[in-house]
Amino acid sequence: MPFTVKLKPMAWGCGAADVEAAMTEAVLVGRTILVVEDDGLIARQLADALESAGAEIITARGVFDATRIIESRKLSAAVLDFWLGVGVDCLPICALLTEHRVPFLLYTSYTLLEGAPDAPILGKPAPPARIIAAVADLVKNAAPTEGATS
């Protein structure tokens, strides 16, 4: 004898957008992401957003710290502030990340970036969901290489 099961609708949605968001966040689980930002509050906001998606975050405030981290850790991706203080840009970090085949994006409020590499740009400020989606896109679109795994 056949029977029918009635399920109650969930309080939260299960639409296509919810599934896509969950899949985007899953991309970052267990990935090591470098955040280079000279403003401590912004660095914490970026770290909180990416950690909420399961990523391991390493932060650096400048070129020296970032260089040390890139040389010693396997990174999945990086998020860089373009200006790291008065007259200090992230271009040396971009070159080193490129050499190590680590995908990166620029997180900045500036629109004119003299000498900026061909990299995705995410405008400041961005909501956590947009930050997660942008970094997940970097990881998904990166060619699998030796230096770009966590």
Describe the structure in your own words.
This protein has 150 residues and is of the alpha/beta class. The chain is 39% helix and 15% strand. Strands 2-1-3-4-5 form a 5-stranded parallel beta sheet, sandwiched between helices. Strand 3 (77-80), helix 4 and strand 4 form a beta-alpha-beta unit. The protein is globular. Mean pLDDT is 83; it is low at 4-20 and 145-150.
Q: Which CATH architecture would you pick?
A: 3-Layer(aba) Sandwich
In spatial order, strands of the major sheet run 2-1-3-4-5
What percentage of the residues does DSSP assign to strands (E)?
5-15%
Radius of gyration: 18 Å
Structural class: alpha/beta
Strand segment tally: 5
| Name of the CATH class | Alpha Beta
